[in-house]
Amino acid sequence: MSLQSREDYMREAIRAAKEAQLEGGVAIGAVLVEESTGEVIARGGSTANHTNDPTAHAEVNCIKEAAKKLKTNNLHDYTIYTTLESCHMCLSAAAWARIPRIFFGAYHKDVDSSLVDIKGKFHDEDEAKRMNLRDGNSMVVKGGILEKECVHLLDSYNKQHKSNSSTV
Asked: What is the pTM of this model?
């Protein structure tokens, strides 16, 4: 599937998040796009909770799917779009895969703290400058793509999740 704008790709990540939620995961999604063709190569949703795998975040699942499909761990010609600002693990996974661009929707500061593993002021946009992609390449991270839609999605998930938890 070849799309055209960052917003189009973020809508695909939102779809992946909704699918993950329907399957029992957290409403966080990611897609990996080949820059030269605009094709969505892989999709992933957060499956950490229902698979009991703390590393099964949307970005990691997406990167794993792409690496397996493409038979390489060097994803230098790709961009990842994710509905929530990445955690340290996911940002590092992208760096190890040499993904030079990450676009995200919601900032950590905009969502319930139960969805975030980092306390204090941490922003991927700042951390990206410190990531080592090797080969002299640098990482660019930009947030706020369909931010309101992503925040709403995560807020809705949290309200439903907390409501279900309190009735059990």
From this structure: 0.89
Between CA 123 and CA 125 the distance in angstroms is: 5
Structure tokens given for 9: 């790709």
Q: Which residues of 121-132 are buried (b: 16+ CB within 10 A; e: fewer)?
A: ebebeebbeebe
How confident is the model over 45-77, as pLDDT tens digits? 999 988 999 999 999 999 999 999 999 999 999
Rounded distance between C-alpha atoms, residue 79 and residue 130, angstroms: 18
Residues acting as catalytic residues: 59
**SS3 assignment for 140-159:** EEECCCCHHHHHHHHHHHHH
The dihedral built from the CA positions of residue 140, 93, 25 and 67, taken in this order, carries a sign that is positive
